[in-house]
Amino acid sequence: MAKVHPNTTAAASTDGPPKTSVVPKEDGGEVSLTVWRKSLLFGCSGFTVFDSKGNLVFRVDVYGSAVGALVLMDSCGNPLLTLRRRKMSLGGTWLIFNGEDAVDPVYSVERQVSLRHGGVLAHVKPRRLQQGGGGYEIRGSYARRSCRVYDERRRAVAEVRRKEPAGGAAFGGDVFRLVVESDFDACLAMALVIALDQMFG
């Protein structure tokens, strides 16, 4: 089977992560996504993400076991963000780039290593002056699919939750919800989930 490559003809913004206004918001303005920890392509691992209406909004397709870069794409295969493991970090730090860029990251996601900061999983730091703000902190347990992203004002802007079945068999850890507040970028939120999965999955 031929590999499906992202459509690199789509122009990516250089001023920060692309805004995903195409993702429909629910009542109250939040975005509710269902994350499936599986690629739709045969023989690939990755993620498939649907909105509340069942429409495909994001995808990540990983070929083989070696992970050099993880490309978050929209439903058409256009690259939105790329995550690359920082060299010599032993998986502890991931860099987020616009599109398929390999230089000038927009964010870094650093795994918390000190045991003194109970409940903290990772710190998200802007890498560009125009990004502004004091970054974000991720707390909780990704393994239990129960964690939140907090901004510098200690306000939860995104949350990973277990997905409760409407009936029948319960979902495992490979299917869960990602709820994003209206003023936080759903694309960045999904990139943080990918980083957490590499750190703790």
For this entry, give a set of tags.
globular, 12 strands, mainly beta, 201 residues, single chain
Approximately how much helix is present in the residues?
Answer: under 10%
Q: Care to count the β-strands?
A: 12
Strand content: 35-45%
What can be said about the biggest beta sheet? 12 strands, antiparallel, barrel
Contiguous runs where pLDDT drops below 50 for at least 5 residues: 1-14
Please report the number of helical segments. 1
Task: Average the pLDDT over all residues and give the rounded result.
Answer: 82
Give the terminus-to-terminus CA distance. 27 Å
Structural notes for this entry:
- Mean pLDDT is about 80; it is low at about 1-15.
- With about 200 residues, the protein is mainly beta.
- The two termini are about 25 Å apart.
- Strand 5 (about 80-85) and strand 6 form a beta hairpin.
- A twelve-stranded antiparallel β-barrel has the order 1-2-3-4-5-6-7-8-9-10-11-12.
- The radius of gyration is 16 Å and the shape is globular.
- It has one helix spanning about 185-200; strands spanning about 30-35, 45-50, 55-65, 70-75, 80-85, 95-100, 105-110, 120-125, 135-140, 145-150, 155-160, 175-180.
- Helix content is about 5%, strand content about 40%.
